[in-house]
Structure formats: C-alpha cells, structure tokens
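Hi V.,

You were right to ask for the full record rather than a summary. Here it is.
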Amino acid sequence: MTEASGGRKPPSQGKRLSEVDVNAGGLRPRSPRRVIAIRPLKLLVAVALLVRFVVLFTGAWAEPTRVYPFSPDSPRYVTLADTLLSHQTFGKSAEEGTIHLAVEKLRRANETLPPADANGLYPEAFRTPGYPAFLALFGGTNGLRVAYLAQCLIGAFASLCLVRIALTMGCRPRAALVAGWLWALHPAVVTADVLPLTESLFGSLALVGLALSAHKVTPAGRVLPGLCIGFTALVRPLGLLYLPTAIILGWRTASRKWLAAGAMVLAAVVPAAVWAARNASTGNGPRVSTVGEMNLYYYGAAYVISESRGEDWFTSWPARVDQLTARLAGKLEPGADVFALARKEALAELKANPITTAKVAAKSQVKLAIDHSAPLAAGLYGVEYKPSGFFSDLLRGKFDSSKLTLRGLIALPWSALNALITLLAVLGAVRAALRRRWALVFACTIPIVLFSAATFPVGLERFRLPFMPFLFVLAVCAIWPPERAAPPAPAAEKLI
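Predicted structure:
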C-alpha cells in the first residue's frame, strides 16, 4: 500500500482507486486528499479469490450438495431454483420443516392455504425470490459449482467495494485497506461464499450498491445503487436496512441532495413493493416474506417462554412449537391471517414478560457478537462439528469445566477473533465520535443496530454477516482513527 504524502501526485503519475477525501464526514477538508495505489488493491482481490478457491476446490466442489445435512436452509433455496427452471413458478410441491408443517396445517384448517397450481405447486411466501433466481441463472442443482464460483468472484470484488466505502466514510487509506482485508480473509465471509445460502449474495450485492452510492452523480444516477439495495431485499427481506447508510454515503457528493436521496429510496423500495403485491395476489397477504412473523413467534416467543421456565431453549423447542401451534389453533378464526395472529401473539408474549424478553435479547446479542460458523465450515468437507455446549451453559449461569476439551473448543480462536473485532468496533466508534466524524459513526452504527435488533432472538454468525463490514470499518478506526474534522466554516466564508 502506498499513500500520497507531502502533496498530491499529478493525475498522470500512477493509478489510483479514487481521489476520495479522507475528511468525507460532511465538513471541510483539513489536509490534502489521500489515495491508495492500484497494486495493493490488486493484491487484495487476488488473495481474496485465492482463499475462496482453495476452500471451494478442497470442499464443496467435489460434492456441491454435501453441506445439506449441516445447512438445513440450503435445500429449500435450491429446490425453489429448480422449480423456477422447470415450471417458471416460484413455489413448492410439498412443505417441510417443523414450523412450516405446523403453519401449513393451521392454514389448511381455517381455509387460508392458497390452492396448488396445475403442476401441484404452492406459491412460496417464506423465502424471497432473489437467491433462488440467482441459483437458477446457473442451472439450479446442476449448476451449483458455477454458482459457487460466481459467489467467490463477487465476494472478492466486494472487498474492493468495502475499501471504497471506508474511504468515503472518512477512514485513513491504511485503515480502509485493512477493512477490505478483513472482508477478504474473515473465515465466516469465506465460508459463506462457498455455501448455497443467501449471505454471500446479500452481503456482496449490498457492498456493491453502497460503493455505487458513494460516487458523485446526478439524482437520476442514484437509481442504480437504489436498485442494487432493492434487489438485496429480494435476496433477504431486510435489505432495505442498508438505505440509511447509502443515503449518508451519497449525501455529500449529491448535486441535489433531497432529490437524489428520494430517487435512491424509490428505486430501492420498488422491488420489495412489487413482490409484496405478488404475495398478496397469491393469497399470502401484502408482505415481502412471512419469515418475520414466523421467527418472532416460533423462536422469539418460544425462547422467552423457555427462559421464564428455566428450560434450555434448544432442547425444549420441539415441545414449545407444539404448544404454540395449539395456542394459535385455539384462537384462529376461519379465514383469519395465520401470520398476523402469530405476530400479535408473539408481541403479547414479549410484552407480558419484559424482563425475560430483555434477558433473552441480551443473551442473543452476546452470542451474535462472538458466534462462529465452524459447523458450516466443517460441513463443506462432510464433517460434523459437535460443539461443546460450554458457552451455552455459561449463558444460563452454569460452568461445566468438563466441556473444556480440545475438540469442543476447536472454534475458540474463531470466537476470540469475533470478540476482538466487536470490542475494537466499540472503541473505533468512540474515537470517530470524538473526532466529530458523524457520517462515519452513523453510517456504521445504524445498520449494526437495525440488523442486530432484527436477529432477535437467533444469535448466529450468519445473521451478523450483513453488518460485519461496518464492524470492520469501526474496528480499524480504533487502531487508525480518522483525522479530526475541522469546525464548520463561518457564515462569511460560506458566502465566499
């Protein structure tokens, strides 16, 4: 990595990522702009690709579906992709999974289950179409290897996008480059890029959209980054949570700020609105996905009940699902929306147990901050990872030293890395705030808070991946804090 110091080079001397002002915090610059030479950026992308290819070709390439037993969500995505290819319909012939079968039974009983089409397919409303459509582009099940290759390429390119984003936020060039390296090499990101799950496409596409939003363009030019972010909402329903960061990144360079922000928001909202209308037309209600209601009820409410009774969340979960399903069945009226009732009952349960809900949320957030993806990484090689259960016991106030075995704690360095990044991110946010880098602080903390709240109560590393880039940016700011922002220009100077 090289930095221009003691004055800028003429444009003809060397290639640069861009001449992004390191003081891009919404205030006047105090020092010459710094840039990153092209060579370290090429190295960044090359190493990111190499690491992903090593994992891909030593693992999932031999048997692309080998990870299915270790990743229960994967078969549904691939099945939906295969259905898109064979019938041009986004649906399934049969439901599967504990909570899906329970809800299907309830909907069939109160006559709200949409009818199957001529091919015996029921319209899918739980998963959004973005990722199955992506897999279908490469041939569904038969094209999984090519889809993995594409994810590796996009994931490696996303590391470059993160450098651009960090520079626009006001990070020093060295810090921005290190943030890109964290994305390129973090084991969770690398693992996600070779899995048939949404996390890879979701995170990479969001970084592309955010990088595009940092460019100086006309209000009409904000449509493209808006559409990128809008498509992430079809990959996972929470994609629109990136909008505040996109607006902040593009605010300073926009010619007509409010018009530009409005154009980007409109472009981002349209895909989700269209899909919500599709779901309404198929009898699934005007919603982008049913995942929010189902998770809130069958996980949020379930875990709160188990916590209030002093039971283990996971071992008691199957019985809790039966209990909650019976609860819905007793209150469900003919023709009523099952998902709306589930949301109502879940919120009532959380409201009735505020202290327990807070405890569940706190435990989930701690797990979210340090959880690892070792089971998925091992599953790429067909190996079952058996966690020790030590940390789960610790969250319940139990200390069992017998579980501190080498095999059980094999993922300890992974969790330690995540804990370190989280602690550094907190420190980085403080240091950036002390330097009045408010654009950086809010552009990073807003998505972290929003995505963290949306994961309640499932604290998995998969659900930390969407806001991990912002943790990386804040973490590097703890080591290389951004330059202190200059005070606002006097009114007379502004007139000049």
